[in-house]
Design brief:
Layout: H1 2-11, H2 14-25, H3 30-44, H4 61-65, E1 82-84, E2 89-96, E3 101-105, E4 108-111, H5 112-116, H6 120-123, E5 130-135, E6 143-145, E7 150-158, H7 167-172, H8 176-179, E8 182-189, E9 192-199, E10 206-209, E11 223-226, E12 233-234, E13 239-244, E14 248-253, E15 258-260, E16 269-270, E17 275-279
Length: 281
């Protein structure tokens, strides 16, 4: 069944389908908006008790999907000691960066330079470092937060495919996260140089950031932006971006900076703000 699902993804017009989904999700027509939200909540078991607003208070399905949480819904772990989960979701993979590559699934990996959209020399600073991949399911909170304190250095929007990023597709599509559309964000802070990469997926209608940017999703040309001197400083746990329909976040840290918690393993559920690693330097 998973082979058929993957084959269908190769055949469908991924970007056209995502643009269509985006236009529907952005509609403020009350009957369409509220019907979509109610059906989605019922289908995926969304816990609206955590949301700051209820059904009927959202301007569009997109507004609902990127809903803010009520105060206190995601308490933050001690950022002086720990690296925080950037999002709700589940661990897909985690481990060391070796040979300039990251594990995607059993028997599959991809290049650090490719997912970052940078040169091999720039990617080399992560050699021997640590990565974690977090999958956001449809029911999850879809804002992405800072795993550690840092100042934005640069971003790269890299156009690409829009395959689903679920477990079956990750196991069956080579270089999945490095071939899908993505936004690579690099920061400098007390935990060194680190990256948070927001990876798009099938019917993801867009990726956005809390800082002004010039990229547009679903276009054909990469967009590289340098933020040196712009003073975009963030504390651990601060919001940095959001997905308009769900996807995946990949974190990268330099060698000797973090030690993932021993109990983290593929499939482990996460909530934004919980401790996922101990800071080492």
């Amino acid at each position: 069944m998973s082979d058929l699902f993957i084959a269908l993804q190769h055949l469908v017009p991924q970007h056209a389908l995502s643009r269509l989904a985006g236009s529907i999700a952005a509609s403020d027509t009350p009957w369409l908006r509220d019907r979509l939200i109610r059906r989605f909540v019922a289908a995926y078991g969304v816990d609206l008790s955590e949301a700051a607003r209820g059904i009927g208070e959202f301007t569009s399905f997109n507004d609902f999907f990127t809903r803010e949480l009520r105060p206190g819904a995601r308490p933050l772990a001690d950022a002086a000691k720990f690296i925080l989960s950037p999002a709700d979701g589940a661990v897909s993979q985690l481990g060391p960066v070796s040979g300039g590559r990251i594990i995607q699934a059993k028997g599959r990996d991809y290049a650090v330079a490719e997912i970052l959209g940078c040169s091999e020399a720039e990617a080399a600073r992560f050699e021997g470092g640590s990565f974690i991949t977090i999958y956001l399911s449809p029911k999850d909170y879809h804002r992405v937060h800072m795993p550690a304190a840092g100042t934005l250095a640069q971003t790269s929007y890299i156009p690409g495919d829009l395959f689903s990023v679920n477990t079956a597709t990750a196991a069956g599509v080579d270089r999945l996260f490095a071939r899908n559309e993505r936004l690579s964000c690099r920061f400098d802070g007390p935990d060194g140089h680190f990256a948070s990469i927001m990876v798009g997926a099938m019917i993801v209608a867009g990726i956005d950031t809390v800082w002004p940017n010039t990229f547009r999703t679903h276009v054909s040309a990469p967009v590289h932006e340098d933020f040196a001197g712009a003073d975009n400083a963030f504390a651990a746990g601060d919001e940095m971006g959001r997905f308009y329909l769900g996807s995946t976040v990949v974190l990268l840290f330099e060698p000797g900076r973090v030690a993932w918690h021993d109990d983290l393993k593929p499939g482990e559920p996460l909530r934004m703000g919980e401790a996922i690693a101990r800071r080492r330097g």
